[in-house]
């Protein structure tokens, strides 16, 4: 990358300043090691002690129980997540502290104190009850980044309803699939959402999805875009009508919930088939997001924390909503795109709200770095004291740019590795303690035993790549796959008997973890998790397509992008128009983030004699490499050359 003025040595180490360390909770590696040792030698004692930081209606009987491979945390205990995120903070004397600063794409920002947020949540919780939502019901939420989104989630948590948020950038088909799987009773959406000043018709998408979703009884619609949404009599209600009803009270007793009752479902892509509904439960998830947020972001009372993720992904659930609020933090929530109206948008938001902590994805860092240093240089970023990244490996060049041009060399960077399934961060620096190596997520968090294994289950050597696994249970881990406990076991525990992450990694001579990327058929496009199988079935659902195979190829900004090999049915002609039509088809059926960047028509795909597509070979072709490995096991080795010749550059 041309904007870096010095030659990078990847063995550079960055230490936190004495000033930063002195003020932080974990001040050095001795302290980290001592506490880490304690946490893995006596995990139940460790987590039991930490759990006392939360408010319980009833204390637990047992910290951890392994129920035939399904892990239960804090059984016998009862609490309420929204009570812990709101009432507990209000009662601690912070009722007038700002909980949420909402920065819309255009227009005035809006602030909620903890007391105001609590009232809004209570009002909406009462609304939910009034329209018949009961404890244990699933509420599907399809909303853009507006305050009603966290309010709806917390209101569900308050009454014991299970929320299932679908990213507002997903298509109506994707929404339909998720509702059919979750069997939700209620849908919450908005008339539209804004991005780059364009309006996306969410309600229209929702209506299309609902034609095939008989479980949904009602729809609550937030007015955001004023685009005359079509409201179905008796089924659809405006949010503002419901909440402004004079009979709706602004207090609502929080439901006392068992530690292992369901809190939320969040769908994510796996190796095969449809997305899986990852289930998280009450107490363990809350404790884990609470503690990781507190220590990894080393949160202080006067911090202003800005996370650019969308709440439709796990990062937003854990580190915009539950982790920060349970710590009484002030959150900046931004609605639009990083480059609207100009590429300094994030930096302007930092400047405007004097953000002290900034958490984003490597893809955004690369994209904004490319725009040139004048954008951040013209903003006052002096409020920043800590930076974070998440979602994909960060290349050292981008890391150093972030450190230098955004952090001005004085802010530690926490490169946080985790997944939808893990609930919270598992591998990350502690900013006041850990010496940083650009590109490494460094060391496991307290209570986490991470390891790298070979195919045969033995431990990899120092610097030898292998399967990243977690050897022990932790409170924030997924509890099951919604409606599919078999898939929980087969996806995560079958291969090695310990939690399989799906990533490859290596551990260096200092015990630092270097995440190398997905080892399965999941592709990380701009940090978004896309299942190749899902894109392939979307393509095959088009009348012209006989067969399709999807592989990743390296991309400067997105990290990885999607390369599609498509075999057409006999009576369809290869043309650029058809290519475009197929790309749009994927975008419509899945959402724009899954749209293939490159597409190649093929007469045949490389298959084994038993008919299995050899993606390894397709991946090499897409990358322009001749490193195919052994091709003699193919039914027809000749297809490889033919494909390579027509590679889309
Ligand atoms: C996958 C999980 C967890 C929040 C967002 C993504 C990749 C995540 C890092 C990191 C390298 C990372 C992994 C992981 N990933 N963080 N710091 N360094 N890779 O959640 O959509 O469930 O994706 O994201 O490949 O398996 P997700």
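-> sequence recovered:
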């Amino acid at each position: 990358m041309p904007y870096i003025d010095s030659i990078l040595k990847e063995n550079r180490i960055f230490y936190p300043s004495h000033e930063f360390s002195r003020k932080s909770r974990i001040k050095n590696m001795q302290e980290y090691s001592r506490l880490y040792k304690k946490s893995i030698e006596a995990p139940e004692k460790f987590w039991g002690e930490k759990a006392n930081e939360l408010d319980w209606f009833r204390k637990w009987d047992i910290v951890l129980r392994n129920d035939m491979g399904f892990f239960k945390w804090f059984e016998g205990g009862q609490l309420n997540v929204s009570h812990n995120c709101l009432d507990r903070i209000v009662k601690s004397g912070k009722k007038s502290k700002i909980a949420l600063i909402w920065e819309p794409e255009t227009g005035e920002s809006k602030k909620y104190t903890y007391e105001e947020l609590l009232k809004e949540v209570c009002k909406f919780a009462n609304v939910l009850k009034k329209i018949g939502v009961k404890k244990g019901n699933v509420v599907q939420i399809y909303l853009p980044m507006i305050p009603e989104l966290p309010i709806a989630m917390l209101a569900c948590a308050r009454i014991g309803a299970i929320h299932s948020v679908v990213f507002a950038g997903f298509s109506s088909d994707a929404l339909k699939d998720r509702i059919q799987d979750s069997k939700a009773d209620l849908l919450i959406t908005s008339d539209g959402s804004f991005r780059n000043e364009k309006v996306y018709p969410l309600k229209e998408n929702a209506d299309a999805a609902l034609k095939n979703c008989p479980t949904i009884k009602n729809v609550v619609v937030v007015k955001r875009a004023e685009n005359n949404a079509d409201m179905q009599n008796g089924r659809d209600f405006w949010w503002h009508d419901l909440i402004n009803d004079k009979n709706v009270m602004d207090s609502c007793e929080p439901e006392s919930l068992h530690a292992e009752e369901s809190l939320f479902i969040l769908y994510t892509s796996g190796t095969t088939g449809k997305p899986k509904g990852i289930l998280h439960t009450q107490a363990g998830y809350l404790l884990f997001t609470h503690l990781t947020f507190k220590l990894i972001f080393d949160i202080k009372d006067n911090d202003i924390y800005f996370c650019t993720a969308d709440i439709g992904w796990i990062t937003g659930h854990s580190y915009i909503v539950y982790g920060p609020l349970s710590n009484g933090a002030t959150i900046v929530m931004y609605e639009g795109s990083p480059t609207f109206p100009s590429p300094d948008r994030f930096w302007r938001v930092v400047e405007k709200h004097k953000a002290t902590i900034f958490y984003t994805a490597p893809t955004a860092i690369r994209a904004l770095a490319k725009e040139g240093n004048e954008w951040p240089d013209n903003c006052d970023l002096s409020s920043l004291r800590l930076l974070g990244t998440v979602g994909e490996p960060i290349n050292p060049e981008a890391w150093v740019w972030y450190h230098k041009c955004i952090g001005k060399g004085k802010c530690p960077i926490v490169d946080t590795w985790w997944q939808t399934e893990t609930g919270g961060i598992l591998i990350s620096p502690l900013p006041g303690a850990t010496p940083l190596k650009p590109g490494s997520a460094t060391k496991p968090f307290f209570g986490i035993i991470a390891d790298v294994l070979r195919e045969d289950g033995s431990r990899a050597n120092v610097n030898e790549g292998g399967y990243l696994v977690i050897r022990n249970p932790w409170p924030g881990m997924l509890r099951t796959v919604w409606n599919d406990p078999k898939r929980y076991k087969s996806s995560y525990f079958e291969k090695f008997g310990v939690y399989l992450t799906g990533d490859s990694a290596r551990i260096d001579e200092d015990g630092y973890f270097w995440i190398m990327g997905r080892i399965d058929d999941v592709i990380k496009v701009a940090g978004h998790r896309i299942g190749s199988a899902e894109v392939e079935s979307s393509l095959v659902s088009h009348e012209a397509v006989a067969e399709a195979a999807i592989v990743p190829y390296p991309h400067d900004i997105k990290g990885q992008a999607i390369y599609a090999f498509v075999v057409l049915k006999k009576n369809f002609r290869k043309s650029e128009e058809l290519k475009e039509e197929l790309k749009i088809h994927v975008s419509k059926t899945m959402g724009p983030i899954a749209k293939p960047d490159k597409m190649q028509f093929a007469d045949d795909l490389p298959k084994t004699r038993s008919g299995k597509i050899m993606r390894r070979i397709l991946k090499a072709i897409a990358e322009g490499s001749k490193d195919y490995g052994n091709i003699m096991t193919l039914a027809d080795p000749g297809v490889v050359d033919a494909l390579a010749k027509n590679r889309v550059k």
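The chain has 20 helices and 30 strands.
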